[in-house]
């Protein structure tokens, strides 16, 4: 995240992986510490799988440096933007 150059080799979901997660788990939030939860080679199809059902919340650009292992509650506080498909959020962890 802190590099000036965009790195296309980051880890993200391909369409089939996103589809499997949506259909076979109860996961409601997917977060990643880079710019997209979708793999660079499969950006649009992967996002569409997650966003079609509107049941999975995507959080991109998480910064979890220094968070100690443990059980936390995560609270994501989005900006309400009319007509937008996403918004900046602030996530907080409560132990």
TrEMBL record:
Entry keywords, A to Z: Extracellular matrix, Secreted
Subcellular localization(s) per the UniProt record: Secreted, Extracellular space, Extracellular matrix
GO BP terms in the entry: L-tryptophan catabolic process to kynurenine
Principal location class: secreted
Keyword Secreted: yes
A GO molecular function held by the record: arylformamidase activity
Keyword Secreted applies: yes
InterPro entries on file: KFase/CYL, KFase_sf
Superkingdom, taxonomy of origin: Eukaryota
Family of the protein in this entry: Belongs to the Cyclase 1 superfamily.
The protein's name in its UniProt record: Kynurenine formamidase
Organism: Stephania cephalantha
Source lineage: Eukaryota, Viridiplantae, Streptophyta, Embryophyta, Tracheophyta
